[in-house]
Write a structure and sequence with these properties.
By secondary structure, the protein is an alpha+beta fold. It has one helix and four strands, in the order αββββ. It has a four-stranded mixed beta sheet, with helices on one face.
């Protein structure tokens, strides 16, 4: 019984650890985005780090970090 509990705890911890590790976008990277959960965008016109948390088509959560200008930038 203790062994099963330990395996379940380890499995949950591994899943949480994977969900917490953000990926950095690179050109040509395949993205499987089924639903966007949240976005954090930079401010201003300088390129900055944006962060998106999303679910893929299997329902797994991912965090993606990418570069973009702020949404409040007006030229």
């Amino acid at each position: 019984m203790k062994r099963i509990v330990c395996l379940l705890a380890f499995g949950c911890a591994a899943t949480l650890a994977h969900a917490e590790t953000p990926e950095h976008y690179h050109y040509g990277m395949h993205l499987d985005i089924a639903k966007v959960i949240s976005q954090t965008l930079p401010q201003g016109c300088e390129a900055g780090e944006a962060r998106m948390v999303y679910l893929d088509s299997k329902g797994e959560q991912h965090t993606l970090i990418y570069q973009r200008t702020g949404e409040d930038c007006r030229y």
